[in-house]
Every structure is written in structure tokens, then in C-alpha cells.
Records
---
Amino acid sequence: MVKPPCVLQIVGYSNSGKTTLLTKLIPILEQAGIRVGVIKHDGGHDFEWDQPGKDTWRYREAGASLVAITSKTKTAIVEQKPQELSVLIQRLADAGAQLILVEGFKREGYPKLVLLRRPEDEELMSIVSHLVGIVSWTDCRQPELPFFDINDVENIARFVMERTKLGM
């Protein structure tokens, strides 16, 4: 039986540094031997993965519900319907992810690191559930939660590994 993956959400308001933090954490975690999967929530937008005019784009435009493309180095599947976070997590787990980092989905019930860029962002801590730590651009420590400066990526990675018991 395959061990279920660990899930950690990275939440914050727009331009709080979520993507930048993830792009710094991923190589550290992968180098520690953890197979990392990432899910990005594109709240309210209609992202475009394909390029207009390319074959896969044309297949979708023709009405295909699912389109897959594969090469020697990667595979992508585009599905023409939204999915629940739990389904996406299971798919990445089935593909071998040990740790799934989720950017966004503020209202989901997984453990969360909250990113706070400005003092006004602190109200987010009262909105989201399952907080396990704070990452901030300013010193806004809370007595009950671990605090990390946004630039302290090594200690954030160590916290993630200790919390998930991966890569140790």
C-alpha cells in the first residue's frame, strides 16, 4: 500500500510572494530526496496552458474533453472541467508525489503556512483554518505559531521536512 502524500498549503493575498517562496523551497526539498508535487489555484481566472494554433489547442477547441501530450521528458493532460482539490491531490499522489504543496485554496482544510506581506494582511490569519506557521515580510509573530522571515527559506524548508517527517 502506498503511503498517502503529505499536503501543505501556502496561502496569502495576491503578490504576497507565494510563487517565489515555492520556487525556492522546491529545489531544497527535492535535493533532500522528497518527490514534490505542486497544485496552483487560479482563483477566478481562466488560465491558458496551450498556445493558440498548436495541435493540442486545436483539439480542445474542437471540443475534446481531455487532451494529452507527451514527449521524451514530460507529459501534460488538460481536462476541460474544474477539479476538487482532493482529486488533484490524489492524482499527484498516484503519480508518485510524497509532498504536495498547494498554492492557494484558502478555504480548504489542509495545514497552511500563511504569507503576510503587509500589516493589513494579518487579518487573513482569522479567516483561514489549520494554520501551522507564519511567513512574513515584517515581524508579525504570534505566540502560538512558528514564525519565519520570507528570506529564511532554509529554515522554512527544515520546518516543512520536520512537520511532514520527509527527507530527514
---
Amino acid sequence: MPRRRLSERQIERIRTIQERRRQRLADRTERVLAELDEAPPAAGTVVVRHGANLAVEDGAGRVWHCLARQNIGDPVCGDEVVWQSLGPGQGIVTALQPRRTLLSRPDHAGRARALAANLDQLVIVLAPRPEPSPYLLDQYLVAAELIGVRALIAVTKMDLIDDGERPTFEQRFAHYGALGYPLLWLSLRRDATLAPLVAALRGHTSILVGQSGVGKSSLVKTLLPDREIQIGRLSQATGLGRHTTSATTRYRLAEDSFLIDSPGVRSFRLGAIDPGDLARGFRELAPLVGHCRFGDCRHDQEPGCALKTAVADSRVHPERLATFQHLLRAGG
């Protein structure tokens, strides 16, 4: 049965109702603040957000169910915040601390939508099957360069290819290793192969990204054997129920190590990027930009292009230049 088209008047009425509900929530938060006894402010970290509800972890590792003051901005997983207690297990977030890093992606309207804050490592997960996409891999690497975080490439499901295929497959990614990106070859069926990844995660706040089907969820479960316990702890403390499994969540790996799991990275893509910033996202191309014969070189058909010369001299991999050209034409 075809869906009934709504009239402009009906659409406007729905918008008005939704805005009224949002305002009621904001008014309720402000009323709570107005009645708040001057509890001492404390530092905390947002470990999960679901709608208006925040799970904030304090310095002692306790989790509090918090709302956020209306005028502080838009807190996301990983944000460091100032909050105040409202009573047992309840609190109000009153300020956001400055973010060191922020991973975002464009929404359907092209506006940047924040996914996670204060991470310092991007782990890009690939597998022999589905067929790896150099274009998607390069977009993740550009994002890591532009927000200033470390990136490494973890290729899982290596048991899917035999020993005869492996050298050819690994050679396809050798140019990334030459650029300084660590390459880890993993198999969940061989626990010993996970040791380098566990070591690389130590001391970092990392997020796993990758296309569907590469085994990211299985990898998260393996790295977090107590994930269900952590989810239960968040659910019990905040009343968010199982919503924590469908929202970006920061899990504790060890005392100084955290893993952010986000459903938003499944459809990750770059937004609009200034050409200069885009070049900065390709660490081997950035030093070459500005050395072409023509100052307005588009690095496509123009003669004397420094980037194309570098490809001809085997100093730049042709797939990397192809991705750069495609993103340049697309405006990022």
C-alpha cells in the first residue's frame, strides 16, 4: 500500500509538536539546574550517548546517568565534561572541555555530524573478502591525517587465503607500509596473530572502522571478552537498556586503554574538504603540491604535474593519486 503524502500543513504541525517536546526537555533540565544545590563540579567522560541521555564515567570509574545543560553544545562519546551530582546515580553536565580530536562524517544534508571525541588512533579493518576498497581505505587515512591521530591497518580473516595467495595479497598493501602506516595481518582463528594489535591498542583511545563484512564486530568481541559485562554495567547505571549496543560506546580495554565502537563508521565518508587540506591528508603528496609547472594545476591532464611525475618515477602509488584526483573532483 503506497504511503500517504503529507501536506505542508501536516508537516509543519509535526515539526511544531517535535519542537515543543524538545523545548519541554530543555525546560525540565533548566528547572533541575535551578533547584540544584551547589554540588561540587567534577570531571567526567561521556562513554555513551542515546538521545538526551548520557552515561558519564567519573574519575573513580563509576557511571552516572546525566542530562546536559541546553547551552553547552552537543556532547558525544569520548567528550570530557564538567558535571554535578543530582543524587544517587544522577547528574547534570554543565560544560564541555575543549576537544583534542573529533571524528565526524557528513549527514544526509551534508552537515558534519560528530561521531566521537578525543580518540588518538584509527584502526582501519580490512579483509581478503569482501574485496578491499583502496578508495575507502584512503578516505579513512585522510581523515586520520586531518584530525591528527595515528592510523594503522589491520587485515583480518587472513585464514581465508592460502599460503600461495598470501604474498600477492600482502604486496597490494606494501606501499602503505612504506608510507609509515603499520600493517597487521590477523586471524581470529589464530590467537597469536592478535598480539601485535593488542600491543598497538595499549595506551590509546582507538576506534575501529571498516566496510561491512570485514569482521569488525567479531574483532570487537574478541578484544573485549567482558563486553557484555560492560554493557550490563552501563545499562544498569543509566537505565538505557540495550540501547548501548546501537550507540557509539567507549569500552575499557585496560587501565589506560579504551576502544570506541561506533555504528556510524559503517557508512563513513569524507565531507567537503579544501584542496589544500585534502593534499595534506596524503602524506606523500603534500610535499609535492606547489611544485607543478602551473600554479592552478588540477593534477589531471596538465603537463609538468609534479604528482604525475612522482607516479611515473614510482615514488607515488598510482592508486593513491587516483583517489586524490577523485576526491579533488568531488570536492572532498
---
Amino acid sequence: MRPLTPDDDRLLSTLPEGVAADFFDRFYFNLHGSTPDPLIMIGAGVYPGTGVVDAYVLRVDGGVQRNLRLGDEPGDLATGVLGPLSWRIVKPLEEWALALGPNPLGVEFDVVWRARTAAWRTEDIEVDNGRGGQSRFGHFFQSGRYEGTLTLDGERRDVTGWLGQRDRSRGVRVVAGGQGLHLWVQAQFADRSIAFMLDEDRSNQVIMCDGGVLSENGETDPIVSVAHRLQFDDGLDFRRGELRIVTKSGEEFTLTADGTFGGGFLSGGGYGGWHGKRHGRNHVAYDEFPLDGSVTPRNLDMPLTDRPAVFSLNGEQGAGVFEFAHSRSPRYTYRPSLDG
């Protein structure tokens, strides 16, 4: 696999030759302190084949998830500005600036994200596109620290030192492929990030395990296996779990995750088919999900969830995101792979 270059981090404004019109180029950031409350998620994407640019900002705190979605078509793919949201790559693979002005969400920010670990590039991901072929997209993620300010309902706070994971993906993605369980775990500790993707099919067989222990000193230790014992409720919502992780260097450890904070439903950000669609000029949409158990992965338009979570590793507490999707197919039953 070739190493990442600055061009892998720059959003494309023209459609690459020979690719489908639904090609996308997207980024995602999350922002949190030493606990995952509040959790802010920021994402945007460009679709050079259709001229669409869209974005979202999600806020999870106080027992509510608040969702802001922005779109424009035809949008200016090169400006890095969409309504109140703006972004700028200060230095590819190392530093991004993000800002959000007044909007219905009650959130504003002016921050700079700086990498604290190397970026981890996963294998290219291929899924059945439902049209008799395969769709493919590239993907990498990276941990960083923030500098700047965050305003919630008029209360301004300094978030310098807050942590967050970012994710970059580019290609053609279709939410299909017969997965049973999907995990994208990003556990942030003081000097390292434990970051990996795990996908299993509906017979509970691993189809992808890719990630690493990414240290602030630049070292990376690839993860070679993940065993899990996870608790899901009747709404297919994740509650708590244990992950037994083995790395290439031979290290073995158990990571626990508490996902009882609720929220992080990516349906609110448009992942259920809203992305890349034409919604008109200067589109703004806002809604809320109460986190009282009435909104669940089972009854949303899609189950993918970036759950704010507290992690524990050998007595050390960390915070971050436990992304999960439990298949709603009656042909799938979750089965732990961790004994005991």
C-alpha cells in the first residue's frame, strides 16, 4: 500500500477520470474533552460529478442530540465554505482550521485541529453496490488535539487541549454488503490513540480488521485481531463492552467501553441517503433526537452510530467514539467472539 501524500488530504473539485458520478470526497472530525460530554461532530463532502457540496454538525449533550445539515447545488467545491461552516487545510496531514458561525444548533466554534499521531490508512474498502458490482473507497484516520474556542448556547469556553479523531474517505460508497457487525473504535488516551475498524458478516466471520495503536511519539503498532463481548439492548443500541486486542508486536490488552451516554446517531447527519443529493440552493435543516430511548438504531433510517464513550485500559481512563452498526436483518444474531 502506497504511503499517504498531501494530495490524499485535499478535497477534489473535479471528477477523476473514469469514475462514477456518485464519487465523493469527505471529511469528518469529532471534538471532545477528557469526557465525551459534550461531543461535537463535523463532517462535509464534495461530489464533483454533480456539483453538490453538503455538510453536517451534530451536538450530543444534556440528553439531546441536535442535528444541523447544510447543502448547496451547484456548490462551489473549492471555497471551503458552506453556509455558517468553513474549513481550511493549513498543512495537509497535519493541521486543519474549522469554524462555525451562528446557526440553529446553538453551537459556534473557531478551532484548529493538529495531528498528534501518524495517520492510519486502511485497506481500500469494497462493498457490494447492489447493482451486480463492487464499489470502492479509500479511507484513513488520525488523532489530534484542538486549539481555540467552542460556544454552546452563548457560553464560550476554551477547548485548547481537547482531543478528537478525524477521518478522510474518498471514492464510491454504498451502504450494503451484508454486514452483520461494524465497529470503528477511536479511543483517545493521554499519549496514544487505539484506533481500528472491524467488520463481520452475518455469520459472524471477520471480513475486515484494520487499525493500530498510534502513539504521540510517532510509533505505530498494527492491530492484528480484535475479540469482543458487547451488550446491545432491544433497540440494537450499544451499552457496554469489552474488546481483547492483539497487536503485531505481541502486546495483548483488554479495552472496555461504556456507551451509556447515548446519542451519536449518524442518521442526523444525513448518512441514511441524504449525502450527495440535490436539496436546492443554500439548504439548511435542523432537528433534534431526544435521548430517552425513543430514538434507536432500530427505528432510524440507518443504524450507524458514533457513540460518545468512556474507555478504560489498565486503570487509565480515556474518551472517544465507539462507532457501531448492528445489522437489522433477521438473518443476523450477534455472537460474542470473546470467551468468558
---
Amino acid sequence: MLIEGFKIHGSGNDFLIIDELTTTLTFTEAEREKLAKVLCNREKLGADGILFVMKSEHADARMRVFNADGSEASMCGNGLRCVARYTNDVLGLDKMTVETMKVNLLVEKTDDIYEGIPTFKVEISPVSFRVKDLPLVIERDQLLNQLLPELHDSLLFSALAVPNPHLITLVDSSVLQSDLQEDLATKVNQPNDLFPDGVNVSFVKELTPGSIYVRTFERGVGFTNACGTAMSASSLVTCSIGLNSLEQEISVYNNGGKVKCIVHHDEESNAYSIDLIGNATYEFKALLEIDIDQPEVFTVLEKHEYEEETKLYAKMRDEVQSFLKTKW
């Protein structure tokens, strides 16, 4: 089987795109899982996950996200930007609707976040603060900037689904530089009584008014350069505790670069949504010859590097890292 795959990243959160939208490719569920485990291996092509871009009966395209461990994610904000970029390229639409596991979401091409870097705005919703929607097994309906003594005796946590499950806490530099995040995230992503399905764990630090830093341990992946839904959820949490404001642009920095988020609240329905705005940058395109029954046996027949895009994004990332060093 011949597969043309694109390596692309949003804030350094990298993916392989496989096109089932404009090609005749199709896969079984077992084949998707195998492909993700093999191709995302850092000793192979390497990626945090595979984005299958598919036909949809009621949207312009459909996105399915398979993590590097073969599990499927219900949403991925950085991945959605990458799908928006690819779909924009192949369909020529600047505004689109993309079907995800739980909801159809609006995406659109927007002003560059950094000169020359293709940038897309995507909708992150639905949002739920009900702990049962993560699920989180506690004797409360919500956890919003509160202690979770079963996990830690002093950190204040917020739990929400967007719709991926997230556990978020604001910390200082000393906590960020410790091993605590890895220890706690590992605990809640192994068999445990609190989060039976695991959870994405983010540590957030305020930088300046209107700007935050977010580092995320992703369920099914581990530490990544950035997690789009985590940055969106973290922005919402900072608004809920008065650190940032609704309807105002928030600069969100991460190890892979930066994005912007705007948190919206519909008072009539009491519903939240978040705009996630950031890059979608191609790294390379590769033509693979692969035995779908034994996907570990594959050959890269052709490979085209997007050198200029990569260099330009690296320039922005270096500027971000220099800025972060002044805030630690």
C-alpha cells in the first residue's frame, strides 16, 4: 500500500496527517491503532499522534486523532489547527467546519501569529466542569481551584472537560522545576481511584498580565511541547479565578512556542467556548510503501522537507524561549 503522509506541528505538538478525504485510502480500527504505534515511534517517522483527515456527511471534513500509544483522543486542539491547514490547502476554504468525535467545530485561517507563519483559529468546545464528565471520582460535583487531598496536600486544582479531561493547577517556578508534575501525572494515568480513564495534567504559571505558561503531561503520550486543549482549558481556568478576563486575548506560552486564546461565555446558556489561535507548520511530506498487515515493515520512497517553514518557526520559538528565561 502507498500512503502519502505529512508531518505537521502546532506549537511543536507534532502529528502525521493521513488523507482519507481526497484519496481512496481507508483503514480498520485495528489498522489505525497499529499505524499510530509504528509510525509515531521516534525511531521511525516520529510524532505525538496521527491525524486521519476523513470525509464527513455533515461537515467539510472529519478528524480522528490516534495517540502514539494507539489510543484514540476525543479532541486535540493543536491537531485541529493542523487539520484546518491541510483542509484549507486541499479544499481551498478559509472557513470550514470539522467533525470531531463529539461535536462539529468551526475553524478558519486568520492573521499570522508571527510574520510569515500560517495561522488558524479553531473553536474549542463543549466545556464541562462536571467531574463526572472527565470522569473524576470524588464526592463533589465540581473541582474549581480547590484542594484534592487524595493527590496533593497543598496544590489547588481545577478539573474540566473540553471535551478531553484536564486537571490544572497554578504553580510557581520552584514547583515547575521539580519532578512533582511528572510524579502526579504518572500516578493519575496508571490504574488509580480518582481518574479511571486517566487525565491530562497541566501546570500553569502566570508570566505577566494577560500571559501564562502551560506545560502539559498528556494522557496516552506523556510530556509534549504543547497541548491545544490544555492551553485552552488553562486559559478558561485563569479567567474563572480572576487572573485573566473573558473576551480578552491571552498569550499562552509553551515549550514549543506560543498561541493565543480568547475565552467566551454565553450568559443565557451559561456555556463556555475558547478560540485557540496558533500555527500549523509543515515539516515534511513522505511517500510510504507499507504492508498494512505488518506496518512495522515500511519504506520511505520519497521525502520533501519544508525547510523555510521550519526555519521561520524555529526563529519564533527561539524568541519565545528567550522571553521565558526572563520570567523564571
